[in-house]
Write a structure and sequence with these properties.
Blueprint: E1 9-15, E2 24-30, E3 42-45, H1 48-53, H2 57-68, E4 74-78, H3 85-89, H4 96-114, E5 124-129, H5 131-142, E6 149-153, H6 159-166, E7 175-181, E8 187-189, E9 192-194, H7 196-209, E10 213-219, H8 225-240, H9 242-245
Parallel strand pairs: 3-4, 3-5, 5-6, 6-7, 7-10
Antiparallel strand pairs: 1-2, 2-4, 8-9
Length: 246
């Protein structure tokens, strides 16, 4: 008998955008019992292949929906070329403006035109790891009418983004789930070794000072998918467990 947690429906798309010089691939997970007559919240994941293949987010979502009453969700995984990742995801990256315009002007409208996605900002969650969390928070800060909820796995909240948080107005409508591994105190990055525990604590405090609701977790772990995968069930429960949403 097929394991019901592993029986997943995942669509693959390629979409052209005037903001990018190439078509961008993304994956769309459909929940068990998917019905086009209903509408669904959506999780938009940076590093889409990694969220599906290494984070196993589709399998985790299946299990939580079938066993724990998680609200059925759509999951969109946006792929990235590793050679362009820093340029697209980092706030100071050369390709960051083009990538964020693609996300807002092309990706979200495409998803909402082809799938029964809910269109309120509370029904869209931006998810990312490291720099993927950075660009997710950036998108939420820059487009509050679209995004107010962020799932951050060891966010690369460098000084430029912290300055952006500090310059923001009232963030009381924002809901942020953050986690970081306690062994992430000297992570090698494109700017040299970074203490991710320190920068996540700093970002947490800034967000709370601005009124955002922040759920913050530190647990034993390194800056790798082996750790982030263990954090995903609680992150999805935070946003979508039916008992929390009622």
């Amino acid at each position: 008998m097929t394991n019901p947690y592993l029986k997943r429906t995942i669509h693959r798309h390629n979409v052209a955008s005037p903001h990018l010089d190439h078509a961008r691939e993304f994956l769309v997970y459909l929940p068990p019992g998917y019905d086009e007559r209903q509408t669904y919240p959506v999780v938009y994941c940076q590093d889409g292949r990694e969220f599906f293949n290494l984070g196993r987010i589709a399998t985790i979502a299946n299990k939580l929906i079938l066993d724990e009453g998680l609200a059925p969700i759509l999951i969109v995984g946006v792929t990235v070329d590793i050679q362009r990742r820093t340029a697209e995801y980092a706030l100071t990256g050369d390709l960051n403006p083009a990538y964020t315009r693609f996300f807002v002007d092309t990706l979200v409208p495409f998803v909402e035109a082809h799938y029964p996605a809910r269109r309120q900002p509370q029904a869209r969650v931006l998810a990312g790891d490291s720099l993927g969390a950075s660009v997710s928070l950036q998108l939420a800060l820059e487009h509050p009418t679209l995004f107010r909820r962020v799932l951050s796995l060891s966010g690369a909240f460098y000084p430029q983004l912290q300055d952006r948080i500090a310059a923001s107005g009232d963030l009381s409508g924002y809901d942020i789930f953050m986690c970081v591994g306690t062994e992430e105190t000297a992570v090698e990055t494109h700017i040299g070794p970074v203490d991710f525990v320190a920068i996540n604590r700093q970002a947490r405090d800034l967000l709370r000072q601005k009124g955002a609701s922040v759920t913050y977790r530190e647990a034993a772990g390194k800056h790798v998918w082996g750790f982030w995968q263990t954090m995903l069930p609680d992150a999805l429960r935070h946003f979508f467990l039916t008992s929390r949403m009622s």
